[in-house]
Amino acid sequence: MATRTPRVLLRTLAGITAAFTLLLQTGCSSVFFYPDQVTYITPDRLNLEYEDVFLDTPDGETLHGWWLPAQSDPKGTVYFLHGNAQNISSHIMNVAWLPEKRYNVFLIDYRGYGRSTGAPDIEGTLHDAEAGLRWLIDRPDVQNQPLFLLGQSLGGALGTALASEWVKRGEQPPLDGVILDGTFSGFRAIAREKLGNFWLTWPLQFPLSWTITDEYEATEMIGDISPVPVMVIHSERDGIIPFHHGERLYEAAAEPKRFLQTDTPHASTFVIPGYQAAVLGFMDANGE
């Protein structure tokens, strides 16, 4: 036993050292992505009509998505960008209620998620988000209807960057609204915060966070979405992305904007009918 404890400690320290070395070599952008290839549920199990979509990216990846048509005369279309774990089949419940409310929905998996090819990184997933939007706007049943972007957690950060560039470039059709739910205020900002919360990584919070690009900090880009209306949603009980991130995003956004303070765990907003109604009210008001 006297020799076992030092050996276990040495192995543990060796593992930590190896992990830190890998982080220093590759940066820590991988902390944003936790994909898997498990199919948790398909839309038909939720009594939803759907279409499997496969689209190619400019850099040679193939992305998988689901098109969910509105159940009656559509009011508009929602482009959904999901959070950082699992894949669309585990996130679909966040938007499965929208077709009944007369909204089409399109959701995609980023590279490396679900049935999409490749491996995720920040630049790649940003390209994937735009590729999905470009596929969507070419659908005849989407054209001449209101178009909204809904991003949750990581998807909100990707959506903020996409929407700001879309507006600055004067892309058509214009977005009618952007909804950000449980979104962090920036890639570098949240990485530094998470690293600083753990005593083993606390000394490395600055050097490791500097390996992450600061070109896509949401607080610096959200103001460029104006004059497209923005709705920021954040829960005071969010244990993954603290509430102050939502406050920072809202403060940085330009008018017109709205803040919805919620009271659910992370990425659980739409289990509450009242929060669904608030988002529907935002879309109905800006889709006329």
From TrEMBL:
| Short name of any one Pfam family annotated for the protein | Hydrolase_4
Q: Please give the superkingdom of this protein's source.
A: Bacteria
User: Could you tell me the keywords of this UniProt record?
Assistant: Hydrolase
Q: Which GO terms describe its molecular function?
A: hydrolase activity
Q: Does the keyword Ribosomal protein apply?
A: no
Q: Where is the Serine aminopeptidase S33 domain?
A: 73-189
The cross-references to PANTHER family, in alphabetical order and at most eight, read: ALPHA/BETA HYDROLASE DOMAIN-CONTAINING PROTEIN, PROTEIN ABHD13
Source organism (scientific name)? Marinobacter iranensis
UniProt protein name: Alpha/beta hydrolase
**Signal peptide span:** none
Transmembrane intervals: none
